[in-house]
Write a structure and sequence with these properties.
Elements lengths: L2 H48 L7 H11 L5 H8 L3 H13 L3 E5 L7 E5 L1 H25 L1 H14 L11
Antiparallel strand pairs: 1-2
Length: about 170
């Protein structure tokens, strides 16, 4: 093998090793981000349960996000969660039965009902908000407030704004 061919072969091997290392770093980052999301959901859910709202699943909290924004219908909840209207309807029925959500007539669509959190639903939402704040304070205690602020700014640049959805049902 000539010297030029040996150098090109070595260069290709080095480039392949760099590509493989970059892929491994990207996989590690993705895994950490998914683990962080799981830790947040699990931490919030545990705190909500400890606050006395032990009849809910994490999925309910994701529905609360849309309902608390106002003027939500079952169709809006379905779209927000990325599920069928039938699945969202069953989830909303459960939340109504448990006293977290009420339905009222829609002002312009006789077939639809507007959903709203009850005082019990708002109390649960406040418990979830406190839990999230506590978790973020824990991150700041480990990383420092400036690093958390930088992380928030960086993620805001790359994460699309959109509905918060449960990863799995």
């Amino acid at each position: 093998m000539r010297e030029g061919e040996m150098q090109r072969t070595a260069g290709r091997r080095q480039a392949a090793a760099v590509d493989q290392a970059a892929r491994a770093d990207n996989l590690a980052l993705a895994t950490l981000l998914l683990s962080a999301a799981t830790a947040l959901v699990d931490g919030i859910h545990s705190a909500v349960m400890a606050a006395g709202f032990d009849d809910l699943r994490p999925t309910h909290g994701f529905a609360f996000v849309r309902i608390s924004a106002g003027d939500a219908t079952v169709g809006d909840v379905a779209e927000h969660l990325g599920v069928t209207k039938q699945a969202a309807s069953q989830l909303v029925d459960e939340l109504v039965r448990k006293g977290y959500v009420t339905r009222r007539p829609h002002p312009t669509d006789a077939r639809a009902r507007l959903l709203a959190l009850t005082p019990h639903g708002w109390a649960c939402t406040r418990a979830a908000d406190r839990a999230m704040a506590d978790l973020m304070e824990g991150w700041a205690a480990v990383l420092g407030a400036k690093r958390v602020a930088a992380l928030r700014a960086d993620l805001a640049r790359v994460v699309p704004v959109g509905p918060l959805r449960p990863a799995a049902w």
